[in-house]
Write a structure and sequence with these properties.
The complex is a heterodimer of chains A (197) and B (402). With 197 residues, chain A is an alpha+beta fold. Chain A has helices at 49-56, 79-88, 105-109, 122-132, 148-160, 178-196, and strands at 2-13, 23-34, 64-69, 72-73, 90-93, 166-169. Chain B is elongated. In chain B, the strands form two sheets. Chain B has a six-stranded mixed beta sheet. Chain B has a five-stranded mixed beta sheet with strand order 4-3-7-8-6. The two termini of chain B are 25 Å apart. The chains are: A alpha+beta (197), B alpha+beta (402).
Chain lengths: 197, 402
């Protein structure tokens, strides 16, 4: 069963200046990803990778074409249903970590618990997630006190809190040095193997 | 910044409301007004009065007691003969020589009630006449008369039991002195708001006895205090009183109402000023929260990415506004109380000791504090409403790339 099914996806942005043509970032994209697959999308900077991920995660619904993610027609569902999908079924990891600076690592991981119906047994799960990314001793640290690699691992732990079947990572190593980036990719492989072996 | 504006507005509001309530309390102390009672008198310009027909006697009092809605009626009678008090001797440690024309009103003992610390009843001729004085009279003595004449300041307990010579039938105006003046004394037995302000009040029976002895009218009353069963009955009672050809003497009530209305008007004006400050604080809150939403666009994107709905985002902004409002409200109340305490201290030390000078000019009531904090909360929430909607409408994908 496919987790992602895109057919003829086209995404246009309004022209940057009047008189210029619309910017077409994605044109007729077809994509099928099955459950349990580990997929990497490659492309040059500005080629639309982030746009595609935002679209897959239901963060951007302004596109042409048909998109089904985990059986959900992204253009047919309501805004609240889409939020519920992101809350329970999709985990996001961003290039720039996107942690809330005022919260500790544990509180950042627990963030999804504040919305929707919360996350069952959230605190235990959050501590487990931090343990899985090797940061159980940094639960009380704020993002400013963590290295880039550690911040990204906190972001991964947050994405894992609701144990979603789909994890979307937008250039997760883009802000990390090569060896830390390799460590993060290894972590993704381990997590994938643990979930889908 | 926005919490500061809310605190200032709330502080002003609570401060002015407390000041208004405090001043109203002073007015009520100077002009105590009962909402259930009216003073019934003979009309000054009634035709029947001119012909000598309109009067308040026992029959009239009985009619008043029978009026629907009347709980009680207490007749009063003035001392209708001249009387003086001459004091020559030691007065609380000072040698005093003074003489006063005595103005007295007779009251029923039930009206004075527990205000009389000693029996307030006529003990008959040759015995000291018990009298009660008005507390406001003592205040005026202590704050005006005593300092001017270098006399000691007195308290109620010092004066109760004190006897003053009384000469009935005598006047400092020779022509008014009667043929057979009599020397007796009056004994102060208590202080009561029921007592006349200009003079002293004696038991009604004593006044009737003295008036009768000197051939003055001892059968008609000067006025009747009518107590209604409830404040709602007063209007009907007043109408019934007028039907009987009598009038309501509400001069003191009118003073109290007029001064009270003036205080309320000033309080209202100042409260409106405070409301304006709070309104400006709400505008300031709106600007601050707009700026905050702009600065935290990416954070809002993160919240949407982890599953927050548009309403969740708006709720987060409004919760922050509520916290700001509550904090501002509490700080404002503390600020108002602090400024009030400082002003009271200044008034205690800097203002002369005038009559009815209150220990505090402010009355902080729970409802004022609740209103202040409520207004602060409302101002902050209203101010944050539009920014909260703007935050909720942010495109999450764009927000994450900000």
């Amino acid at each position: 069963m496919s987790a992602i099914e895109l057919r003829g996806i086209t995404k246009r942005y309004p022209p940057r200046e009047p008189g210029l043509p619309q910017l077409e970032l994605l044109r007729g994209v077809d994509l099928t990803v099955h459950r349990g697959e580990f997929v990497a999308v490659e492309g040059q900077s500005g080629s639309g990778k982030s746009t595609l991920l935002h679209l897959l995660g239901g963060l951007d619904r302004d596109f042409d074409g048909a998109a089904r993610v985990l059986g959900c027609d992204l253009r047919a569902v309501t805004d609240a249903e889409l939020a519920a999908l992101r809350h329970t079924q999709i985990g996001f990891v961003f290039q720039s970590f996107n942690l809330l600076p005022a919260l500790t690592a544990l509180e950042n991981v627990l963030l999804p618990d504040f919305f929707g119906d919360g996350v069952p047994d959230a605190e235990r799960r959050a501590r487990e997630a931090l343990d899985r990314v090797g940061l159980s001793d940094k639960a009380g640290a704020r993002p400013a006190a963590l290295s880039g690699g550690e911040r990204q691992r906190v972001a991964i732990a947050r994405a894992l809190l609701a144990r979603p079947p789909l994890l979307l990572a937008d250039e997760p190593t883009g802000n990390l040095d090569a060896s830390t980036g390799e460590g993060v990719i290894d972590l993704f492989r381990q997590l994938h193997w643990a979930r889908w072996r | 910044m926005s919490a500061g504006g809310v605190a200032l507005g709330t502080g002003c509001l609570v401060f002015f409301l407390a000041l208004g309530a405090g001043l109203q309390g002073v007015v009520n102390e100077v002009f105590p007004v009962s909402t259930r009672e009216v003073e019934v008198v003979v009309p000054q310009l009634a035709l029947g009065n001119l012909l000598g027909e309109q009067k308040i006697d026992d029959a009239t009092v009985a009619k008043l007691r029978a009026v629907r809605g009347v709980a009680a009626a207490y007749p009063k009678m003035q001392l209708r003969i001249p009387a003086v008090s001459r004091y020559n001797g030691l007065f609380f440690g000072r040698e005093v020589r003074m003489g006063l024309e005595v103005v007295a009103t007779g009251l029923m003992p039930e009206l004075v009630g527990p205000d009389a610390r000693m029996p307030f009843e006529d003990h008959g001729e040759g015995q000291p006449v018990p009298v009660v004085a008005n507390r406001r009279l003592l205040e005026l003595y202590n704050k005006v008369f005593a300092p001017q004449r270098n006399l000691p300041r007195l308290t109620e307990s010092m004066l109760i039991g004190f006897q003053i010579p009384l000469e009935l039938g005598r006047s400092f105006v020779t022509a008014r002195t009667l043929a057979n003046p009599q020397e007796t004394s009056m004994q102060l037995v208590g202080f009561s708001e029921r007592a006349t302000l200009a003079g002293v009040s004696m038991p009604l029976a004593a006044i009737q006895r003295i008036n009768r002895k000197y051939g003055a009218d001892a059968d008609t009353y000067s006025s009747v205090l009518v107590r209604a069963q409830s404040a709602d009955d007063v209007t009907d009672v007043a109408a019934a009183v007028r039907k009987l050809g009598l009038e309501i003497d509400d001069a003191e009530q009118r003073y109290a109402v007029q001064i009270g209305a003036a205080v309320e008007l000033v309080t209202l004006a100042l409260s409106l000023l405070a409301a304006l400050i709070t309104g400006l604080a709400a505008v300031n809150t709106m600007q601050a929260f707009y700026a905050s939403v702009r600065e935290r666009t990416r954070e809002i994107g993160i919240l949407r990415a982890v599953g927050a709905t548009r309403s969740d985002v708006a709720a987060v902004v409004l919760a922050e506004a509520a916290a700001t409002g509550l904090a501002g409200g509490v700080v404002g109340v503390v600020l108002a109380r602090t400024v009030a305490a400082l002003l009271d201290r200044l008034a205690r030390t800097g203002l002369p000791d005038f009559p009815f000078k209150p220990p505090t000019f402010f009355s902080f009531r729970a409802e004022h504090v609740a209103l202040g904090v409520g207004v602060a909360l409302l101002a902050a929430l209203l101010g944050a409403l539009i920014p909260a909607r703007a935050a909720a409408r942010l495109d999450p994908a764009k927000a994450l790339t900000e």
